[in-house]
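Working notes for the structural subgroup meeting. M.R. asked for a predicted model of this chain before we commit to crystallization trials. I am recording the input and output together here so anyone reviewing the notebook later can reproduce the run.

Input as submitted:
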Amino acid sequence: MTVQSSCRDDFPALRREIDGQSISYLDNGATTLKPRSVIDAVTEYYETNGANIHRGKHRLSEEASDAYEASRTVLARYIGAAANEVVLLRNTSEAINLVAGGLELPPDAYIVGCMDAHHSQILPWRRAGRLDLTRVDGYGRLDRDHFRELLRGRPQVVALTHCSNVTGVVHPVEELIEEVRAACDAVIVLDAAQSLPHERVNVHKLDVDFMAFSMHKMLGPTGVGCL
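Returned structure, recorded in token form:
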């Protein structure tokens, strides 16, 4: 059995045929298919538990709550954070909106973002203040000179995208963060939804204030996000 065929066997959806042809699924940037292990874990919860978390003292609720908090610890370990720094939400969009609203910025707050960012990393900041977007060149890379020019305006927030869902370009966020820290006292919010499925990130080494990502882009269940 080849590695390719064994990997396909992990994903029940790939057993389907459309017009007599087996599926080749390429839309992972939007949502990954679910492997059998994830499907089994979700099914087991509904079959053997199904109780609310943190809302009861009976055995099933306690078990569900313990499993929920254990997942927080696993996520924290994966990104180099402490468990009490991890907020579980529905997706990256909700996480970024939570930050944008929770900072309670003045209406004229100056914010720097990226032209190639997902709408979830653009629209919340447009509502929160005055947003300028860093240009990109013909290869999809950030215009570093323009970025530095915008930083001279001393933004209160810099919204960075690690990997663009539009172009697939992976930006040098370590360098960008260093430039932000040297130029101003901005809050840095990193969208890692597209990068974290492919490489691990240590939030403390990166020195970001907030980072957001979604499980449904990482082979996990839909409806789970992390801040």
